[in-house]
Amino acid sequence: MEKAWIVGRTMMQDSDRVVSSQGKDVRSCEPLRIVHSDVAGIDIGSQKHSVAVRPDRDNGPVRCLGRMTADLHAMARWLRACEVTSVALELTAVDWIVVIQILGEYELEVDLADARQAKNLPGRETDGEDCQWLQQWHTHGLLTRAFRPADALCIAKSSHLVFLASIFMRPAL
Question: Span 114-139, mean pLDDT?
């Protein structure tokens, strides 16, 4: 497994390191300590969720899954099969509430990352890489946890949103 390095504000892999002719790093690099080894990153999307696990856990370490309940259960089963114990996901709107509830049923610890911090990760270039960056930064303990309301409040908020949707989605008489 490659080691991750921080140079300035940019995270680098071993393959990115610059080495002098004497075999020494040109830049002063310290390897990042692995804080959480059994982690995944989830990018919550409006149409699909992207999930990344460590490359040594699965032949296809990044998967895109749907938003339906059956898809979320399949995601949780896959994460358990990859021996994941902790998941980082970006806190956006209310889409994360159902994901957390289902992951909790599978005894997966969920850490919410502050969306502002996740969007400004050094080296991050596209949304397609968000799940991989979240997974990698969670591995090294570099994400700041966002506030997560208690389960009872999340359930009440979900119920209220369903109620509002039922009112506004009714056909006109």
Answer: 72
